[in-house]
Design brief:
single chain; 2 domains; 3-stranded antiparallel beta sheet; 37% helix
Amino acid sequence: MQYKRMPIEIESPEQMGYDRIRNNLSESSYTDAMLRDIGDLSPVLKDLVLCYGSHAGHEGLRELIVKDNALLIKEDVLLTMGAAAGLFIIATTLLEPGDEMVVIRPNYATNLETPRAIGARLHYIDLRFEEGFSLDLRAVEKAITARTKYISVTTPHNPTGVCLSHEELQTLTALAKAHHIHLLVDETYRDMVFGKPLPLAATYGDNVISISSLSKTYGLPGLRMGWIICRNQHLMETFLAAKEQIHICGSPLDEEVAFRYMQQRETHFQRITRDIREKFRIVKTWMEGQDDLEWVEPAGGCVCFPRMKRPEQKDVDGFHRLLLEKYSTYTGRGHWFEMPDHYMRIGFGWPAVDKLEEGLKSITECLRASGQK
């Protein structure tokens, strides 16, 4: 394994220092929750035995994750230390050096860097702004070879917020099945779609692997709680073996807190949904008044990926530097996603409304001030 640090982590706000950032528009999650938001856990936690937990994960939590889904049972769920650990387990299970995968780009860095570290060959399906960041299914099929092990897609997409349709997921599932490979669907933002959510991706076929977490939609990244869902029990047994060799089991404390939170999921989710919709309205109204920026309007999630209209007329590096140093405002630069830096990811779910509005105003002012190259 040839590990390489990812720019999105090197330049993350927690690494840069939160004290430097007044308006943090770089986050890809909802506002961080506090333990008190879940209620009084002291009666539960004081008697919690801090032992090795179930290797597959908290049974009650696994049941809640697939609740009301007739096609899935708790045995189809494996808890992981965040979605990142799940992606690592999947990549190291399915790929050997020299194997191939088909993956969309831009993408969350772990979807790319772990396969690279293994020594796999990546066939990129580059999503283009000019095409609405839509997925070219014919390009996916064309990229599959005899060495391809899986196709990797994300919906809602990070960083653009674009969503796949039911028909597209059906086509991808059938395509993967015809080639005897797997389809990985990162659906971390599934609950955040602005319309009706699609079924859990794992229900599309037993060759489909879905992954998600509590980090993004629910603002609980500190719990490190993610999961893999797949109906192929042989494959799930292999994923469990990988998990056991990496960290045996999850933290009983994290899993119990996550379980208690998910018992009140609907209450939390209603509040989160109202807040996200209001913040999205603010961003959409702001974008409608922009002369220097354009976007593909997101259909879900809590991030968007606008770009400068005339980057050749701007000092792009100077813009980002000025934005942070003078305006204390931070966005995710395009190179976090292997895209040019005249793109920027704006996270509108994490900051409070006043900081979001101040940050957006700062971007406008900074674009005007960044001047000619």
